[in-house]
Design brief:
Immunoglobulin-like; nine-stranded antiparallel sheet
């Protein structure tokens, strides 16, 4: 429904969405963090089919915003995706120049395991890069 309404991040099919259900080995995403998860909330799906999570944060590498965001659970299975949707004046003040849309939002199914991490896929890169501050989800939260 959100894709049909062209609602971001569902208004286009990203490379990150193509990874849904796939496993991403931790060794392929080693390296310094290129951003972070700043917020996570749990909500009940409108169709009463269960719960989901919404995440937000920022991702940038050498002044370039992420193309899209991948959300993985504790077993490193891709359970959600997101997109860069907002500018972040707070970050721009620190670097002294415009970064573009480095603030991202993502949605995912509520994971069966407690850990949730995010990875950023940048233009021209084949592999997603890690974001800092993985979150733990209380399995009984949001009921």
């Amino acid at each position: 429904m959100l894709r049909a309404a062209r609602h971001a991040p569902f208004h286009w099919r990203s490379r990150c969405e193509e990874l849904l259900g796939q496993s991403i080995p931790e060794a392929t995403t080693a390296g310094p963090a290129t951003g972070r998860i700043e917020a996570l909330s749990i909500y009940k799906k409108a169709d009463d089919s269960g719960r989901a999570i919404a995440l937000s944060g920022f991702a940038e590498r050498d002044g370039t915003a992420a193309e899209c965001i991948v959300i993985v659970d504790g077993s490193r299975t891709v359970i959600g995706a997101g997109a860069s949707v907002s500018e972040r004046p707070d970050l721009e003040r620190n670097v002294g120049h415009s970064l573009g849309r480095v603030g991202w939002r993502a949605v995912a199914t509520l994971p069966p395991s407690a850990a949730v991490c995010a990875l950023a896929l940048f233009p021209g890169e084949a592999k997603p890069l890690p974001l800092a501050d993985c979150k733990h989800v209380a399995q009984d939260a949001g009921r």
